[in-house]
Each structure stands twice: as structure tokens, then as C-alpha cells.
Amino acid sequence: MDHRDLLADAAHRPLDAARQVWDGLSPETLHAMPGGRGNSIAWLAWHAARQEDVQVTALRGGEEVWVSGGWAELVGVPRGAGDLGFGDAAPDVAALRIADADALLAYLAAVVEDVVAYVGSLSADDLDDVVDTSWTPHVTRGVRLVSVIDDAAVHIGQAAYVRGLVEGWSIGY
């Protein structure tokens, strides 16, 4: 299997799982915070997409999908470029209210398509480029991409878990 096909397949998996979480999702469940302090599905999906968007933009250059697509307004989250929720506390999570759940899912889909397009432009040698020397060992482009995709998958898995806690729902695997 080609590296581009493998990374593209991995990039689509969080979106595929998010679509299952979204099926029949109520606004109340979208914003529910388990125990009054756990991350909501809204925050988890927003953060999954934002971290992927911000970090892949740092690799490819250019403008974030969040900015170029006007997603802050469409989703109803007035946060700017570079803001991906790192360091958000429970009050920040509670304050993140999604005006249109379908728009948030569409934003995640737009980010995934951006990641897939970027991955499609890379050679196998490009994956070996060191992109971050602040870690030991240094981080390569390939390792960063795997990390970003993995982070999105983890957060969407957490969103599925939150829906299960709130509604007794199961993703059906």
C-alpha cells in the first residue's frame, strides 16, 4: 500500500466515526458535560478538527480551513486562527456552544479533505523531513501526521463515549 493511501484512510476514520456519533444526536447531548466537568461532544469534535487544521496548516503553510472557509461564523464559535482549545478548563468547554451541529461535522469533513489533499502531495521522502527539533527524538513530518490523525481519532472516540454516558448509546461495533 502506498503511504498516501494509508494516511488518507487513517485520516478518514475519525470522520466516519463522528458521522455515527452525529446520527440522531440532540443539542442537549451535544453540549452535555459528564459530571459537570467532562468535555462535551461539541468541544471534543471541535477540538479534534481544530488541532488537525492548525497542525497540518503549520506543515503545509497557508491559511487554516477554519479561516478560509469562514467556519467560526458557520459553526457559531467565535475563536480565531490558532485557537484549538489547548488549556481550556471546564468553564471554557461549557461556553463552547455550537450553533449548527451539522456545520461542525462539515468543518471536520473539510479538514479531513485538506489533510488528504496535503498527504496526496507528499513523497515518501517528505515524510522523513524533520519538522520539530524541540523533542528528542526530533519529530518528522510523517510522525507529526500520524500524531495529528491519532489525536483526532482519540477525541472522536471520547465523543462516542460521552454519548454513551449521556444516552446509553453505542457506536455499534
Strand content: under 5%
Tally of structural domains = 1
Task: Tell me the number of strands.
Answer: 2
User: Nearest-angstrom radius of gyration?
Assistant: 16 Å
Q: Write out the strand line-up for the largest beta sheet, numbering strands in chain order.
A: 1-2
Largest sheet: number of strands, sense, barrel closure: 2 strands, antiparallel
Per CATH, the architecture is Up-down Bundle
CATH class: Mainly Alpha
Distance from N terminus to C terminus (CA atoms, Å) equals 26 Å
Overall helicity: 55-70%
What's the helix-strand series?
A: HHHHHHHEEH
Q: Strand pairing plus helix content: what structural class?
A: mainly alpha
Instruction: Name the poorly predicted regions.
Output: none
Q: What does the average pLDDT come to?
A: 96
Compute the number of helices. Answer: 8
List the helices and strands and how they pair.
Blueprint: H1 3-22, H2 27-31, H3 41-60, H4 65-68, H5 71-75, H6 90-95, H7 101-120, E1 130-132, E2 139-140, H8 141-167
Antiparallel strand pairs: 1-2
Walk me through the structure.
This protein is mainly alpha-helical and about 170 residues long. It has 8 helices and 2 strands. It has a single domain, classed as Four Helix Bundle (Hemerythrin (Met), subunit A) (Up-down Bundle), CATH 1.20.120. The protein has a two-stranded antiparallel sheet with strand order 1-2. Strand 1 and strand 2 form a beta hairpin. The two termini are about 25 Å apart. The mean pLDDT is about 95.
